[in-house]
Amino acid sequence: MIIEKVKSLIIKEDEIFYENHIKFVVDYSIELAEIEGGNITDAVLAALLHDIGRIRYGGKSHNLTGSKDAKIILESFNHPEENIKRICNAIVKHDISETIDEGDLLSLILRSADGLSHYKIVPFIFSNKLSKSNGDLNEAIKLTLEKFDFEWDKKILLDSAKAIGEESRSAFNLLFRK
To answer: What is d(CA 61, CA 77) in angstroms, rounded to the nearest whole number?
Structure first.
């Protein structure tokens, strides 16, 4: 099955990143595809491959480099060309610099799932912000709040995703806004 092959490839490339981010994006993508009536296989493949560019080349333009690599990977497994185009488009558009058309369900699912996944790794994100702020706790809190406000407003686009994430957001706000 293509999902298992792609999952194995991603785990082989970066198991830690898979365990601490990608698997959460996959889980949310499945849930959102079920709610929204999307193609679950394509949602899972997009989620598995959405950060392949980050894994291989770093963060800059990872949506673009990742889309190119995802195309090659999916073609190697003989995935249908029409589906590959949708998946690669969603990978490009999971970056907020790209505009998503209202009818582009796969892109909406992927971007929303990616945003929701960050609520699963709040300690890691806070630690990263603390490091970037040279140990300044107040600055780290400010940066963390800015990131999660941004995620909520710019990445989590589907109403169904906001409903899924509301409890996590409330808990996050209780922790960081007090």
So the answer is: 25
Domain 2-176 has CATH 1.10.240.10: no
Dmax over Cα atoms in the chain, in whole Å? 52
- Give the residue from 14, 31, 19, 37 showing the smallest Cα distance to 112: 31
**Contact call for residues 44 and 27 (beta carbons, < 8 A):** no
CA distance 23 to 26: 5
**Whether the predicted pLDDT of 178 surpasses 80:** no
CA–CA dist 128, 143 (Å, integer): 10
Which residue ranges make up each domain of the chain? Answer: 2-176
User: Which among 58-62, 87-91, 97-101 has the top mean pLDDT?
Assistant: 87-91
Q: Span 67-96, mean pLDDT?
A: 97
**CA 59 to CA 42: how far, in whole Å?**
23
- Whole-prediction pTM: 0.95
Q: What is the mean pLDDT of residues 122-129?
A: 95
Contact 45, 6 (CB under 8 A): yes
Chain mean position to CA 119: 11
DSSP state of 77: T
What does the DSSP 8-state code read for residue 64?
H
Mean pLDDT over residues 47-75, rounded? 96
